[in-house]
Predict the 3D structure of the following.
Amino acid sequence: MSAEPAGKHSFVYLAIGVAFGVVLTKSEVISWFRIQEMFRFQSFHMYGIIGSAVVTAALSLQIIKAFRIRSIDGEHIGIPTKVVGRPGPSHLLGGTLFGLGWALVGTCPGPMYALIGNGVTVMIVGLAGALAGAWTYGLLQPRLPH
Amino acid sequence: MWDLISNPWPWYVAGPLIGLVVPLLLLVGRKRFGVSTSLQHICAATVPRGLAYFNYDWRREGTWNLVFVLGVLLGGLVAATAFASPNGVINISDATREDLGALGLTDLSGLLPREIFSWAGLLTFPGLVMIVGGSFLVGFGARYAGGCTSGHAITGLADLQLGSLVAVIGFFVGGLVSTHFILPLLL
């Protein structure tokens, strides 16, 4: 996937990230209250956001495939299907552990960065916790079922 | 016009904009949208400790992703300052307000319950479990599952990946257990 030198198009990735952070904030996806509302099935808001994001992304992928659209550097966009792999225990167990944490801290990784930007400085501790979790996964990876 | 930008954005505006991140990253440099990979890159850059999972060229693989998440942080700052909502109240449903009130949360006025998500709240038992424990599980689970909401629920589902569907089912199993069984014990 990464045939280009590190740092190429960095300004564009930064700009897309800024736009994503603005949308996460303005749509209240970063709110612990919205996540609680979602897990209590008491509003369509989060489902509407995730659902319409999936539909938009799926249509975009079909358009890229159908018209064989190339990247801005003229490279063929081969959409990698092997990245996710066959469904296995890692998806179910990892997904369930993620969900347990998601409802407690009320934020997934993207909103966690956006919350720090929103001045919720205690989420720096949250980010450190998430890093500790990712590191622990790296430590235990050889021994976990996948 | 300004009201439309500064007031909270409806789902049918925000969702498609988030979905567009997927093709944009592919068009710029054939990158796959995913936020939790940044956690792996940060670990690989700081404390790899010889672990196989962190043994790769993070500069080559991960620089774009680290720049992207820095952008997300800055986007939060921009939204909170330049286009801040006129009142900071999150307009959640009355049913959710009642449920959270019944759990003992009294201040529902901000982005998140300040009695827990603050430096003072961090020093309480529920605050420690929810902030540190919850985040730890988010980081561990996302890397174990191979992705979080962006990688699995959005990119993976859009690409019709069965593994992503299984992961998203896991997200909800875990989320429902925490919401209905663990939070009532903590709060």
Observations:
- Chain A has a mean pLDDT of 94.
- Chain A touches chain B through 127 residues (CB under 8 Å).
- The helical segments of chain A are 10-26, 32-39, 45-66, 89-105, 109-117, 123-140.
